[in-house]
Every structure is written in structure tokens, then in C-alpha cells.
Amino acid sequence: MSDDRRLDVLRAIVSQYVHTREPVGSKAIAATHDLGVSPATIRNDMAVLEDAGLIYQPHTSAGRVPTDKGYRLFVDTLTSIKPMSAPEKRALEAFLAQSVDLDDIVSRTVRLLAQVTQQVAVIQYPVLASQTLRRVELVDLGAHRLLVVVITSSGRVEERFIEFDEPINLDALGRLRAQLNDTCEGLGIDAVHTQLAACADNASPDVKAMTEAVATVVIDMLRPESDSRIVVAGMSNLARSGIDFRDISPVLDALEEQVALLRLFNEMTADDDLHVTIGSENLHDGLTEASVIAGTYGGGNGPSAHLGIVGPTRMDYARTMSSVRAVAAYLSRYLSH
Hints:
This protein has 13 helices and ten strands. By secondary structure, it is α+β, with helices and mostly antiparallel strands.
């Protein structure tokens, strides 16, 4: 029973310290949390927690604050993560529903996540290798110029211009557009490459150059990117919480380099619902005073990637984890459609 009570004392210390940033004493816990024991008993429990390395006393005659180990035990023993409220969910869905393509949804999502959590939000773009072709548009921009638009299964839109020495045959252009969409819709890059190669081989001499040029550009736009892309928002939130860091510069440097975030994301799998690293658990030196809460979005038959937040170890873990999970779910729903 005492172990359960000590865990309750730890939860009380974490909860109160997160909201006040003041060391927490036994009298404050007894007054604000109905543990059914005296301040003296709570002091004894705090001594045991301190011996276990879960809390510490920042200076003499002060209350206690959680250590990284204490935050870890707190997170690991969360019995439930409070879901977002109905109004929050409706606002989230309405805001993201206005997106027009992948770039727009990523931009909206990272700004929304930063606003909801009041932390730095980071989102990794889906890996293009797992995307399929949804549609190709060929737009005549004049006698010698063509715009090629490729739309992928994730909603990503890529555009390229092609210049020709000879005038574009508009009838042949319409037939080529129809043929590409009829034969390549829903195919991955390898299958599209095969279909376009056959299309170019079978093209008549008068449109062969145009067909080969379009095929080359479409394949190039579907080619996987060599590096993952990460979008960051809410850096001002980190600046406002600078009081929680001895030196905020290493955190800012780590976010700017993005290497640490990519390494953390790469360690996750598509099955990871939420992944929390706290303080010294982060291998990058710049993040040893920060916590990272990351989730996975997408998956199924489409691309998957990761998103999350970076903030001080003194954060509302339950609420932040709930927000990351909810935003990842809505982003997954968008991609599935």
C-alpha cells in the first residue's frame, strides 16, 4: 500500500511542479491532494522517493522537484491519457479539413500542434518511395511550353516546366494526358516507369519527343527524396520556456540542425503509437534538458512518417501526449482519403 501511496506522492509532485514551477513541499501536497495521510507521512514518502533518485531538493529548506527518472516513472505509470475535448476535436478537424494538398496539411498541422501544446512542434514529411501516382495533368502554356503536374496518393503536388523546340500538338497532348491517367493511376514508381517507357516506345514519330520528355519528368518527380524533410513551428514557445533551461542555445542548435530529430524518428517504427524521451534519455547533447514526445501518422496502404513536440522536461505530459496522438490520428485520416 505504501508503494502505491508513494507513487501518488510522486504524481502530486510532478503535477504541482509542472503548473507552479515551485519546489513542492509535504504541506502543499497534503492540502491539495486527498491522500488520507499527514504531512509527516508524506515527508517520509518523499525521503524514500529521493533515495530512489525520483525527486531531489534543489536547495536547503526547499520542497522537492522531479528528476528525469521521476518524470519517466510518472509517464510510464499513466493509466490513461485524457482525450481532447469535443470542442477541441471539432476545431482541429475543421482547421485541417481546409487543407488543399500535402504541403498545406503539413504546414497547418505543425502550426496547430505548436499552438495546442505551447511547445515546439516538428513534422516529418512522408517518404515518397511508398506513394503512388494519383493523376497527371499536362497544361499547354503556349506553342513551345508545357506544365506537367503530378499528384500523388498522399496529396503531394509537384510541378515542372518543359520547353520544346517544335510547337506542341494539342490533339496529341490530350491523348497523352488521357493515356497516362488511364494506365498509370494507382501505380508506384517502378510500375509507372514501365508504363511510360512502353508509352514512349510506341509513340508516333511526330509526338515521340514530347512523350519521352513528359515520361522523364514524371518519373523524376516520383523519385524518392534522398533526405527526410522536417518542418518546425513554435520556436517562440521554447523561448518563453527558456527559464526551464540552464542554457537554451544547445536546444535551439539541435532543432536547427534537425539531425537529432531525424535520428529519433528513424528509431521509431510505424507501430509506435507514442514515444517519449526525457532529458538525459536523449542521446543528443543539445536535448539533455528537453523532452520529446513523438507519434506516427499515416501507414496502412499509404506513406507513414512521424510528428511530435520538443519542450522542457517540466511539461504537462498527459495533455501533450493526448494532443500528439489526436493530431497524428487526424493527419492519418487525411492521408487515407
